[in-house]
Amino acid sequence: MRRFSANLGFLFSELPEVRRIEAAAAAGFSAVEMHWPYDVPASDMKAALARNNVTMLGLNTPVGNAAAGDFGLGALPGRESEFQQAFDKALSYGAEIGANAVHCMAGVVPDEALVAVESTFVENLRSAADKATQAAMTILIEPINHRDKPGYFLHRVEQAASIIGKVGRANVKIMFDCYHTQITQGDLIRRLETHLPLIGHVQIAGVPDRAEPDEGEISYPEIFRALDRFGYTGWIGAEYKPRGRTEDGLGWFPTWSNGRT
Predict the structure, then answer these.
(1) Domains in the chain, start-ordered, CATH in brackets?
(2) Is residue 43 pLDDT above 80, yes or no?
């Protein structure tokens, strides 16, 4: 049986964040993930997760100054202390609610700064990974396509694998988002097989519109069969933007969860 988690940044988004956990549990999800849940006190979030018997898989580091165009701080030279503060906030919140992972967002950078940017990201990830080890948590890094987020530093799977090699910490993994990777690179099954030892989480959405995964150009049944062959046993995050009410678009969930692909 495949394990799907609901990304509550997009799913059930018409509800307050705590009630999204209740809605996800009612729909049959036993795990969730969130982008930035920090407006909800961690004690309230922890209680809601326990009340609904739901696991929180992961959350993102704060983006920085969104009004100024920030979309993460991990790879921004000169802002290392801001990144560490953002990471410490995510790690503390995640540890309190029982999350398994923190996604360290790299940020948007100018092309001319790429060499310095990679060095900054590697050093920031080393520090973050060492802190996360103490909390038994994983660090995730996610390649994000340039159509949705122009200038985002980390945008290719091979780039993520190279950075993880330079970081040299076993608890740093790739968040392999099939939607982003299909838009940027394609060849999903080969890339999943090649990088499987470094993949800590998989996410899905339809391409090109990022709607339900049962539409668009990716054949997710083929992806799932490949993951089964490769021995992937982790969670698969449903991170898509529903066409309408989330509940109305969940027809894929019971079928794919039971392996009927």
Answers:
(1) 4-257 (3.20.20.150)
(2) yes
